[in-house]
Amino acid sequence: MNQDNDKIINAENLNIDATLEKLSSELRPDETLILDVGNNYFEQTDTIYDTLVMRGYDVKKSFKNGRNQILVTKKQRSQ
Questions:
Q1: How far is residue 73 CA from its own chain's centroid?
Q2: Which domain of life is it from (predicted)?
């Protein structure tokens, strides 16, 4: 993960559909987006993670500074 290409979105107050829309409009190939989900009260980390995997994103869960995060990278399409 290249820190120069990382963006962080606070996804704690966004609903899942808004989070996915924001992600798809902002994420470029080979760029990593960090979704800061926070405390995960409603299991939204798992729901967002599963949805992103199903849509073909490269996704990893992380826990940093007491907060749940999802690291998302858009896969390069092979030619």
A1: 8
A2: Bacteria
Which CATH number characterizes residue 24's domain? 3.30.110
In a domain, 37, yes or no: yes
Q: What is the DSSP string of 17-78?
A: HHHHHHHHHH--BT-EEEEEEET-TTSHHHHHHHHHHHTT-EEEEEEETTEEEEEEEBPPPP
Residue 1 in this model has a pLDDT that exceeds 60: no
Report if residue 79 sits inside a domain. Answer: no
The pTM assigned to this predicted structure is 0.75
**Quick one: average pLDDT of 57-73?**
91
DSSP 14: S
Eight-state DSSP code of residue 15: -
Give which of 43, 42, 37, 38 is closest to 72, Cα–Cα: 37
Count CB neighbours of 31 within 10 A.
Answer: 15
